Amino acid sequence: MTPPVIEARGLVQKYESGRSLLKPGRVVRAVDGIDLAVRPGEVLGVVGESGSGKSTLGRMLLGLESPAAGKVLFDGAAMPAPRTDEWRRLRARMQLIYQDPLAALDRRMTIADQIGEPLRIHRIAEGPELHERVAALMARVGLRPDQADRYPHELSGGQRQRVVIARALATGPKFLVCDEPVSALDVSIQAQVVNLLRDLQEQEGLTMVFISHDLKVVRNICDRVAVMYLGRVVEEAPSDQIFTDPRHPYTRALVSSVPKAGQGLAGRIILQGEPPNPAARPDGCAFHPRCPLADAACAREVPALERHRGRLTACLKQRPVAQTAA
Ligand SMILES: Nc1ncnc2c1ncn2[C@@H]1O[C@H](COP(=O)(O)OP(=O)(O)OP(=O)(O)O)[C@@H](O)[C@H]1O
Ligand SMILES: [Mg+2]
């Protein structure tokens, strides 16, 4: 099998929050031991409630921050430390597209200059060639030539995100992390931008990690999905299986919240209890206080992500009965 483009091994990230002069901060384990691999040309979706660690995972996969433990491999080699020369060279091959295009763009630079900037920085093109490349990138993401001399605030949200995408593609990246790339956009144009990302991914054979709250979007664009809960992956499977036959009780609840054609929200599972709080992680399975299946063992034992009955889940209840009783 072809080796993965990106691989996470035992990734952990901790942050200290609430620290002041008078009291020490609390350590939050934003990512709590993640193993995953994305094969060339594959799109891996990452879903889970707010605060589950999705963005933190994405930043570590790009080497934007160093993990507290574990490591990231890009093309089989260890990720260099952030902001070293080696890391900067590698950055041309990995790009981030996130929620807020206005924050990603420079208000004082024209669209054409921003799309051309990575080409200049990495000395890929200059002069008339630069001009041509920028025009081609603009056309590929559906921007009009007359928009080249505009500034970000003169464009719509969807157009700005197209500029961000063109800029991300300029250096011919191999790996892209899209972190909620359409959630700040008007619902009516979200589908257009998702379709653009999907077309570009297919044409370029890009490897992608696609983080989103919107399960319908994830189903539309992702080959495989990892479901996160409090810093861990609780289920991972091909998209179809996640949506038609979810196994982890948390995945079942998430999937049940997507309206189905003709049925609406019939069968929706409403989760009880508090939303996840990484500063107060429950013992045992972090999901157990909200889980309809939980028993005493779930409050004691942290389940590993394991293959049971052909599926990868981190749930004691998915184990064959003989194993659970042991
Ligand atoms: N730089 C930071 N300093 C302190 N805590 C942080 C930092 N970044 C993230 N956290 C905390 O880590 C946890 C995970 O955050 P993260 O942004 O990765 O979640 P997320 O799944 O992307 O959430 P959302 O869906 O809201 O974007 C949260 O509790 C968050 O408050
Ligand atoms: Mg996030």
CATH architecture assignment name: 3-Layer(aba) Sandwich
Q: What ligands can be seen in this structure?
A: adenosine-5'-triphosphate, magnesium ion
Number of helices: 12
CATH superfamily: P-loop containing nucleotide triphosphate hydrolases
Which consecutive residue ranges, at least 5 long each, have pLDDT under 50?
Answer: none
Radius of gyration: 21 Å
Q: What structural class do you assign from the helix and strand content?
A: alpha/beta
Q: What is the CATH C-level name? A: Alpha Beta
Please, how many domains?
1
Give the CA-CA distance, first to last residue.
35 Å
Sheet with most strands: 8 strands, mixed
Mean pLDDT: 92
Question: How many beta-strand elements?
Answer: 12
Question: Strand fraction band?
Answer: 15-25%
CATH topology: Rossmann fold
Strand order of the largest sheet: 6-7-8-3-9-10-12-11
Word description of this protein:
By secondary structure, this protein is an alpha/beta fold. Helix 4 (111-121) crosses helix 5 and helix 4 (111-121) runs parallel beside helix 6. The two termini are 35 Å apart. The longest helix is centred in the middle third of the chain and has 18 residues, at 187-204. The protein has an 8-stranded mixed β-sheet, with helices on both faces. The protein has a 4-stranded antiparallel β-sheet with strand order 2-1-4-5. It has helices at residues 54-61, 85-91, 101-104, 111-121, 127-140, 157-169, 187-204, 215-221, 239-244, 249-256, 296-300, 321-325, and strands spanning 6-17, 26-38, 43-47, 69-74, 77-78, 94-98, 175-179, 207-211, 224-229, 232-238, 306-308, 311-313. It has a single domain (6-325), classed as Rossmann fold (3-Layer(aba) Sandwich). The protein is built from 12 helices and 12 strands. The structure holds adenosine-5'-triphosphate (ATP) and magnesium ion.
